[in-house]
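Q: Sequence in, structure out?
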Amino acid sequence: MEPADGLESRSVADTRIRAAGLQDLDALVLLEEQAFQTDRLSRRSFRRFLQGDNDHLLVVEDSAVRGYVLLLRRQGTRLARIYSICVDPESRGRGLAEQLIRAGEDAVRSAGSAYVRLEVRRDNETAIRLYRRLGYRVFDAIPDYYEDGAEALRLEKRIRFYAGSRSDFFIPYYSQTTPFTCGPAALMMAMN
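A: Exactly. Output:
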């Protein structure tokens, strides 16, 4: 299969990372069923993401698909989001999640994104350690985020640096505190 959006196939040890295609649909649904009890992506959702222009769905494979990462880009912004990442339970501990995250960051960076955000269960200590090791920082928490009522932490990483810019430049994040508009939070961020 030809790489999508300029993404070249990446081979690490006995695995290869590539853009997913419709031929991977069955494998993606099976991975989701094996890895998650709740908050699963449906076949219909996978099909839509595979056909989306701003979506980056990458798979890691050896003799079979062993995992995927799904990143979404919001049109008109420099922000991308890791929407979902999944590694086959039998393939965990091989560094596949890290390989997928790095490949996903490369893909959205090539598409113009400067930041990647994600949500992770507060009780998923293994994933949080991985994200922090890769340079993500916690900037917010969302109560009752998951289907079972678990809280999510929001993390962010800057992935694009411009010549002559400060690499430690921090843009503050303010949670929306009013139910009807994001205007006050946007104004606070702009004025800081």
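The chain has five helices and eight strands.
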